[in-house]
Design goal:
With about 210 residues, the chain is α/β, with parallel strands linked by helices. The protein has two domains: about 5-15 and about 90-210, HAD superfamily/HAD-like (Rossmann fold, 3-Layer(aba) Sandwich), CATH 3.40.50.1000; about 20-85, DNA polymerase, domain 1, CATH 1.10.150. It has eight helices and six strands, in the order E-H-H-H-H-H-E-H-E-H-E-H-E-E. Strand 2, helix 6 (about 120-125) and strand 3 form a beta-alpha-beta unit. Helix 1 crosses helix 4 (about 70-85) and helix 3 (about 50-60) crosses helix 4. The two termini are about 15 Å apart. The structure holds 1,6-di-O-phosphono-beta-D-glucopyranose (B16) and magnesium ion. Magnesium ion binds near residues 15, 47, 48, 172 and 173.
Amino acid sequence: MFEQMKGAIFDLDGVIVDTAKYHYLAWRSLAEELGFEFTEEDNERLKGVSRMESLNILLEIGRIDASDEERERMAASKNERYVEFISRLHESELLPGVRAYLTDLRSRGVKIALGSASKNAEFILSKLNIRGLFDAVVDGNQVVNAKPDPEVFLIACRKLGLEPAECVVFEDAAAGVQAAIAAGMGVVGIGRADLLPGADKVVSGVDELIA
Ligand code: B16
Ligand code: MG
C-alpha cells in the first residue's frame, strides 16, 4: 500500500490535532444553556460527524424539539464558542509526529491533501502553521455528502491529480474509514483496531508511521 502511495489524504480532528476537546467544551456550554448535561461519553458520538448532524444528536440526547430555524441559530452559537477556543490554538498542539511525517512524505514526492468534515479546517491549519504542507484542502464547505460517503476523499484525490488507487487515507473515525474504502483507497486507521473495522493497518498515532 505505501509503496504505490502517490497521495496521502489526512483527516483533521483526531489525526492532526485533537480539536474534539474544544468541540466538547462548546457543545457542553450550549447544552448547559438548554438545561441538560452533555458528557464526554456523549461527545464520542460526534467525532467525524458534521456540525448539523452533531446538533441533531445533541438535541436527541437532551430530548429537545427545535425548528430548522432554531437549529441554525444553535449551530451558529456553538460555532462561535468553538471558534473562540480554536483562535487560541498553537502549533504545540499538533499531534506527535505530524509535522515530521508530512515533511517526510513531501520529501519523497508524495502529494498531501486534507479531507475533513470541518468548515473551520483552513483556519485550524493556519493556526497550526502547517497550511503550506498541503497541496490541496477539502473541507466541510466543499462537500455535500458527509462521510461515510466517499465524496470528500474523491474530491481531494482529483485536486491532487491522482487516481483513488494511488491514494492512502489517514482517519480516526469509523465513518471515515468506510468512506475511504468506498472511494477505493488504502486506509490507515488512527486509534483502536476494534473500533476501525476495514482499515488496512491501524496505528495509535501518526508518530508510529515515521520510519
Ligand atoms: P465544524 P474531521 C470533524 O472533523 C469533527 O470530528 C466533528 O466533531 C465536527 O463536528 C466536524 O468536523 C465539523 O466541524 O463544526 O468545525 O464544521 O474529523 O472530519 O476533521
Ligand atoms: Mg476525525
